[in-house]
Write a structure and sequence with these properties.
Elements lengths: L3 H7 L6 E4 L6 H14 L8 E5 L2 H14 L8 E4 H13 L9 H15 L12 H15 L14 H17 L5 H14 L1 H10 L2 E4 L7 H11 L5 E5 L14 H9 L4 E4 L2 E2 L4 H11 L11 E2 L8 E5 L2 H17 L7 E5 L6 H10 L3 E3 L10 H13 L5 H7 L19 H7 L4 H16 L5 H10 L3 H12 L3 H15 L5 H24 L8 E5 H4 L4 E6 L15 H15 L2 E10 L1 E2 L2 E2 L4 H7 L4
Parallel strand pairs: 1-5, 1-6, 2-3, 2-4, 4-5, 7-8, 9-14, 10-12, 10-13, 11-12, 13-14
Antiparallel strand pairs: 15-16
C-alpha cells in the first residue's frame, strides 16, 4: 500500500516532477509503480519510456522489480545507465562498438605514459606512488562532466600550463588509438545533439517519458543531454535526495536539483516523508547531523519502525583498541544469532580498515571487503624492516642486501653485490682499497648482529634510532615531496602490529598467513557477483550507498578522517557531512560510531559530525 506522497508521485502524468526521497523512503517502489501506471492506466506506449539509473546493478534490479510487479509481462521499457544510453545513441550515430571503449586500467596507463613523456615538474615523487595518476584522471573527468573550459579549472596537482598540456596529451594519445573513455561518451553525445538537431528530434520522439533514479548524483553534461532529449514536453520525472549526493569527485552536482526548480518554475515537487528502513533514534541522529548543511532542501522525515535503541558513540584510545572493540561487538551480535551479512563496518577510506582486517582474522570472524585494500606489509618501509631482520636471521640473499644497503646511506654500489648471495667479507674485498668503507661495512655487520636475538619491536626501534633509518626517511620525504607524518604513521602502525610477536619467525609466519588471507579475499572480490550473507561486510562510506544492514559500525570518526583533511571549502565540507549522513542511514536497528583519542602518540579529536550528533559545541 502506498503512502500519500508515493501515491501522488505514481499518478503524476505530464510535465516535470521532482520527488525528494530520503533514505529508506521506498523510491524504487514508487518508480516501478509509476511505470506500471503510465502503461496500464495512462495508456503510454512502453517503448517510449526511458528509465535511467547510475549503475548496471541498479538498472538490473529496477528491471527485475518492475517485471515482478507486472507479473512478467515484459513490456519493452528501456532500462539503462547514463553511459549505456549515451553509448547506444553514439552507436547509432557513428557506428562505434565495444572495441572503441577504453577500459579504466588502459586509460590510466595512457595517462601515465603522457605524464612520463611530459616530465612534469609538479609530479616528481616516489616511483611507486600511483595516487596522482588516479587523482588526475578524476580531474580530467570533472572538466568533461562539468563542461568546463581548461582555463577555468584549477588542478590540485599541477599548475594551469601543466594540466592543459597533460589533458591535451592524454586526448591525443587516445585519439591515436581510436579510443574514447566513459566521460567522452557523455561529452560526445552533448556535442552530437548540438550539431545534429535532426538526430536529437528522433530521440525526443523515441523517449516521451523519462524517469531518473538517484538524480542527486547527476553531473552537468548528463543534465544538459537529458534536458535536450526531454524537450519540448519535459515529461521528466526525477527521484533523488540532495542530502545523499557524495560523488563530487565525479562531477556530481546536488545543486542541480535546486537549479532545476529555477529552470522549471512550475515543476511539481513531491516529498516522501516516511523512512521504512531505520528506527526513530537512527533517523533523528542522522537528521541532527545533516541539518548543519545550508545548501539543501528542508525535509521532515519520520520513521515507521518505532524508537528502537539509541545510537551508541564509543570513545577508544587508538586504532588497535578500536579494532578489538568492534570485533568484540560483532562477535556479540553473531552469538545472538544475527547473520554476518547483516553486519557492516564502514569507513571513509580503505586504509582505515587495515588494522581491523587483521584483528577480524585473529578473532576468526568471516568477512569480505567490497574494495581492494593494499597489503600493509607491502609498504616499502615494512619491506625494509623485514630485509634487516632477514639478514639478522642469517639469510644472505642478494635482494635483502640491495633493499637496505643504502637505507641509511652507506655508499655501497650494486656492483659490489654481484652474486646470488652476499657476505660481508665479499663487500670488504670489493672495497679493499678504501679504508673508510671498511669501517662502514664493519658497522653494518655489527648492527645486523645486534638484531639477531631481538623481538621485532625492539629490532625496529634499534633500526630507527641506532642505525639511523629515521634520518633516511626524513631525507626520503624531503626528496620525494612526501609528508613526513605519513611515513611516520606507517612506522608507528608497524610497531603496533609487531608488538605481540616474540621472534622474527613468529612475526613472519603471521605476515605470510595474513597475506594469503588477503590474497584469497582479493580473488573472491574480483569473482564476486553479490555479497556473501555468511560474511561481515567491510566497505567505504561511498560504496555503502544504496545498501542497508541491521547493524552498522562507523569507525575512525575523527577530524582529518571524516571530514577528510583535504576538505577545506564549504562545498567540500558539506559533501563530507552528506557522506557521514549516508553512512549513518545504512543502519536499520543498531548503529555504533567510534573514534580514537590518540594517533602516533599524539592526541586527536572526534569528528565535528560526532559533536553535532551529540549536540555539543563545534
Amino acid at each position: 500500500m502506498l503512502n500519500k506522497g508515493q501515491e501522488e508521485a505514481v499518478h503524476h502524468l505530464e510535465g516535470p516532477c521532482m520527488v525528494i526521497a530520503p533514505p529508506g523512503s521506498g523510491k524504487t517502489l514508487t518508480i516501478t509503480r509509476r511505470i506500471r501506471y503510465l502503461i496500464e492506466e495512462a495508456g503510454i506506449d512502453p517503448a517510449q519510456i526511458l528509465v535511467i539509473t547510475f549503475t548496471r546493478l541498479a538498472a538490473r534490479e529496477m528491471r527485475e522489480r518492475f517485471t515482478s510487479l507486472t507479473e512478467g509481462k515484459h513490456y519493452p521499457v528501456t532500462f539503462g545507465t547514463f553511459h549505456s544510453v549515451f553509448y547506444g545513441i553514439l552507436k547509432c550515430a557513428y557506428g562505434i562498438n565495444g572495441s572503441n571503449l577504453l577500459a579504466e586500467q588502459e586509460g590510466l596507463e595512457i595517462l601515465k605514459q603522457a605524464m612520463d613523456e611530459l616530465k612534469l615538474e609538479s609530479l616528481q615523487g616516489p616511483e611507486d606512488d600511483e595516487e596522482p595518476t588516479h587523482e588526475l584522471m578524476q580531474e580530467i573527468g570533472i572538466v568533461k562532466n562539468s563542461l568546463l573550459h581548461l582555463k577555468d579549472f584549477h588542478s590540485q596537482y599541477l599548475n594551469q600550463e601543466e594540466f592543459t598540456l597533460l589533458f591535451r596529451q592524454y586526448e591525443k594519445k587516445k585519439k591515436e588509438r581510436k579510443k574514447f573513455d566513459f566521460d567522452d561518451m557523455l561529452v560526445q553525445c552533448y556535442a552530437l545533439f548540438q550539431k545534429r538537431p535532426d538526430i536529437l528530434k528522433a530521440w525526443q520522439e523515441r523517449f516521451q517519458y523519462i524517469l531518473i533514479d538517484e538524480f542527486q548524483d547527476i553531473n552537468r553534461v548528463q543534465y544538459e543531454v537529458i534536458r535536450m532529449i526531454a524537450a519540448p514536453e519535459y515529461n521528466l520525472f526525477v527521484v533523488g535526495d540532495d542530502d545523499q549526493s557524495i560523488y563530487g569527485f565525479r562531477g556530481a552536482k546536488p545543486e542541480l536539483m535546486l537549479y532545476m526548480k529555477q529552470e522549471f518554475p512550475n515543476i511539481r515537487q513531491i516529498p516522501l516523508t516516511t523512512n521504512y528502513r531505520s528506527t526513530e533514534f537512527i533517523v533523528g541522529a542522522a537528521s541532527r547531523v545533516i541539518l548543519h548543511n545550508e545548501s539543501r532542501f528542508y525535509k521532515r522525515v519520520q520513521s515507521s519502525k518505532g524508537k528502537g535503541e539509541s545510537v551508541h558513540v564509543q570513545e577508544v584510545l587508538d586504532e588497535n583498541e578500536e579494532s578489538r572493540y568492534v570485533a568484540g561487538e560483532i562477535q556479540k551480535h553473531l552469538d545472538l544469532g544475527e547473520k554476518p551479512g547483516e553486519i557492516a563496518v564502514l569507513f571513509r577510506a580503505g586504509i582505515q580498515a587495515r588494522m581491523l582486517t587483521e584483528i577480524l582474522n585473529e578473532y576468526r570472524i568471516p568477512f569480505e571487503m567490497k574494495e581492494h585494500i593494499p597489503n600493509f606489509y607491502d609498504h616499502f618501509i615494512v619491506r625494509d624492516m623485514i630485509a634487516y631482520m632477514q639478514l639478522a636471521a642469517g639469510n644472505r640473499e642478494r635482494r635483502w642486501f640491495l633493499m637496505i644497503a643504502n637505507r641509511p646511506v652507506r655508499y655501497l654500489g650494486r656492483n659490489s653485490m654481484d652474486g646470488a648471495r652476499v657476505e660481508f667479507e665479499d663487500l670488504r674485498r670489493f672495497y679493499l682499497d678504501k679504508e673508510w668503507m671498511q669501517d662502514i661495512i664493519d658497522q653494518f655487520e655489527v648492527d645486523i648482529k645486534m638484531l639477531e636475538n631481538m623481538t621485532p619491536y625492539s629490532a625496529i626501534q634499534y633500526i630507527r634510532k641506532r642505525i639511523g633509518y629515521d634520518t633516511f626517511l626524513k631525507e626520503y620525504a624531503k626528496e620525494h615531496q612526501v609528508p613526513w607524518n605519513t611515513l611516520l604513521e606507517v612506522m608507528t602502525e608497524l610497531e603496533e602490529r609487531c608488538k605481540p610477536y616474540r621472534t622474527f619467525q613468529d612475526w613472519m609466519c603471521h605476515i605470510d598467513t595474513y597475506t594469503a588471507d588477503l590474497e584469497e579475499q582479493e580473488k573472491a572480490r574480483r569473482n564476486r557477483q553479490s555479497a556473501d550473507p555468511e560474511k561481515v561486510q567491510l566497505m567505504t562510506m561511498h560504496s555503502s550507498k544504496g545498501l542497508e544492514f541491521t547493524t552498522v559500525f562507523l569507525i575512525h570518526a575523527n577530524e582529518g578522517e571524516v571530514p577528510y583533511q583535504k576538505a577545506v571549502t564549504p562545498e567540500q565540507m558539506e559533501e563530507e557531512r552528506r557522506m557521514f549522513y549516508v553512512a549513518m542511514t545504512r543502519a536499520k536497528e543498531h548503529l555504533t560510531i567510534s573514534y580514537i583519542t590518540e594517533k602516533n602518540g599524539n592526541p586527536v579529536k572526534a569528528s565535528r559530525f560526532v559533536e553535532e550528533l551529540l549536540g555539543r559545541h563545534v
